[in-house]
Design a protein that fits this description.
alpha/beta, 13-stranded mixed sheet, three-stranded antiparallel sheet, Succinylglutamate desuccinylase, EC 3.5.1.96, hydrolase
Length: 334
């Protein structure tokens, strides 16, 4: 099969839609969607996605380095695997999205948007994920790793965002996230339109959004920063040792969401404010007409501040630490 990323960026179909090698069979589902199945029976069905936002290229480069040896038959495959490059049209233009933020459209929320490429693509990805997991002929462990990069710099270069989940997280999944070099984990307490919330809610998958560094164009990424994440993915997919855990990730939970309600919205943060910057109780965070957002807890940390989002969307999250967990790990952030 021709280079999968090149095919995706060109919008082309491969000469053949399926094939096999000594370790696996592969099937091209659609542009940017590839299914790989090992010849041997396995117990895990894994979805790995990247490029849901088209300007977040480091995860795409990481994933491509893992997939090409599989397609060449150079590595074994230990899971059923669905590979997704989420937004090919935006990837081609190095833009976050063309018409709307696709990572707010999952779980059927795409129906609330006007017809646009992202809405249609969100529906297609939901369909591909459902078909993939329903194709399992026996009970499988379901994991979904959705890799992103952040718009801003961060006090934590690598962190994970966990969707709302009503049952305990599998211990093996939490151990894997630590081995992947994540410095922090953020736990949502409300449903959302993200790809990981969709896979968790609808398919009971263990899901996490991995945030790996800052959004940069193809070729400008320092992938050495994410060596542990790449090694952990390779171990999961093809075998080998997991990286040693240098330090367990710190834990945070969402305390409140800042939503842009109108064109009057003002975010009272410097454009260079880093993710996980701390704010003291009572600090004015944003205002939108008569609406005011203040820090409510003794200290809250900002995540994903972005005043340029469309009306009705999230302009930032405020977090509080999981004190019981973090006190055992040492000092807090600045």
């Amino acid at each position: 099969m021709q280079d999968f990323l090149t095919l995706t960026l060109n919008g082309h179909s491969p000469a053949h839609s399926e094939g096999q090698n000594a370790h696996l069979s592969w099937r091209w589902i659609d542009v940017g969607i590839l299914e790989l199945t090992p010849h041997e029976t396995v117990s895990m069905a894994l979805v790995v996605s990247a490029g849901i936002h088209g300007n977040e290229t480091a995860p795409v480069e990481i994933l491509e380095q893992l997939i090409e040896p599989l397609l060449r038959g150079e590595q074994p495959l230990l899971t059923r695997l669905l590979v997704i490059y989420g937004n090919p049209a935006a990837l081609r233009q190095n833009k976050r999205y063309l018409h709307g933020d696709m990572n707010r459209m999952f779980g059927g929320r795409w129906q609330q948007y006007e017809d646009c490429p992202e809405a249609r693509r969100a529906w297609r990805l939901e369909q591909a994920m459902e078909n993939f997991w329903q194709a399992g002929e026996y009970e499988e462990v379901r994991w979904h790793i959705d890799m992103h990069t952040a718009i801003r710099g961060s006090y934590h270069t690598r962190f994970g965002v966990m969707p709302l989940r009503e049952t305990p997280w599998p211990e093996t999944f939490m151990e894997w996230l630590a081995a992947a070099g994540l410095e922090a984990l953020v736990f949502h307490r409300a449903p959302g339109g993200t790809f990981t919330h969709y896979s968790s809610q609808h398919f009971q998958a263990a899901s996490c959004t991995l945030e790996l560094g800052k959004a940069l164009p193809f070729g400008a990424n320092d992938l050495s920063q994410f060596a542990a994440s790449a090694q952990a993915l390779r171990a999961l997919i093809s075998g080998g040792a997991l990286p040693e855990v240098a330090e367990p990730p710190r834990r945070y939970r969402v305390s409140q969401q800042i939503t842009r309600l109108s064109e009057q919205f003002v975010l009272h943060m410097n454009p260079e404010t880093l993710n996980f910057t701390a704010f003291p109780q009572g600090a004015l965070l944003a205002e939108d007409g008569d609406k005011r957002y203040y820090v409510q807890q003794a200290q809250e940390f900002v995540l994903f501040p972005n005043p340029a989002v469309a009306t009705g969307l999230r302009a930032g999250l405020m977090l509080v630490e999981d004190s019981a967990h973090n006190e055992a790990l040492g000092s807090t952030l600045p």
